[in-house]
Every structure is written in structure tokens, then in C-alpha cells.
Design goal:
Layout: H1 3-11, H2 16-37, H3 40-57, H4 66-87, H5 95-103, H6 114-130, H7 133-143, H8 149-156, H9 160-180
Length: about 180
Amino acid sequence: MTDEIIIGLFTARSETAIAETQRLYGRYFYSIAHGIVWNDSDAEEVVNDTYLHAWNTIPPAHPDSLKAFLGRVTRQLAIKRLEHNTAKKRGEGQYLSVIDELAECLSGDSGDEIPDQIALREVMNRFLHTLPPDVRGVFIRRYWHMQSIEEIALSCRMSESRVKSQLMRTRKKLKTYLMEEGFSV
């Protein structure tokens, strides 16, 4: 079943839309959520909240890619769940350590303004397209999917030290790229 058909089911308010979304993308959403919250029940709850969000926003939203749209929703919901859990001293998963890794590349002084966020997103997309596909994949696995070094090494058939050094080199390239694009680092 295609995204367009599933979106049509959401528009028609058919519960089949949720079942089909779960069938196609459930594992993907779960892996995003679990990579951030590192807790099975919290990850499942985040995924269920993702389906609820889809139900409540489609329509009027009509995403070009249902997977990307709901993947981003899952990530945002998982981060909120992690912040909630961290406030209650329940643990923080990989999220905070991953953010610390990127802190040297990204400054926080312009992050509050929407135009700056949009510009940063565009620059990040351009940067990612400059990377070879295998390097880009490792970077995205770490900083979007919040996978651990060990998980990346296993899935990419690399040593953990190679993953770490590749990520370090990529972060340095990102820092230089952002500076060249006029972002304060």
C-alpha cells in the first residue's frame, strides 16, 4: 500500500489507515523511539502517540512522505518523553550524549528563531549531500536515529573505533561547513 493511499484512508477517517501505517512503518518508528528513550514500554507509547498524532493532523496535513513526516513526529515525541523521564530521574538513553557530541558544531544562540532554524536545516541538508553515502548513513544513524556506536558498528560491519573516528571527522567537517555558511560555532 502506498503513502498516498494511506493518507487517503486517514482523510476518509478509516481506522485501516493506522493499521496500514503500523504494518509499513511500525518497526521504523519503534527504532527511532527506542534509540532515544531506551525503554521498551516508553518506545511503544511514543509510537502509539505517533499514530494518534497522524490521526489528528491528517487532514489537514498532507505530507509528501508519510514515513518522513511521522518519523519526525516520532523523534519529537520521543525527545519529549525523554525530557519528561529525565526530569523524574528515570534515565536519559543515548539522546543527551549524542547532543553533547554535536554541541561543538552547533551554537545555541540562534536556535530560538524560526528563520535561523530553517536556514540551519537547509545548510545541514546541503552538508549531508556532500558526504559519501556510507559516511552520511553513519552520521544519520547516530544523530537522527540516536543509535549507539555499537549498533552502528554492527549494522555497518565496522569496528567501533572506526565508527567513532568517522563521526569525529564528520563533525569537524560539519563545523567547518557551518562556519563557511556564516553560522557561529
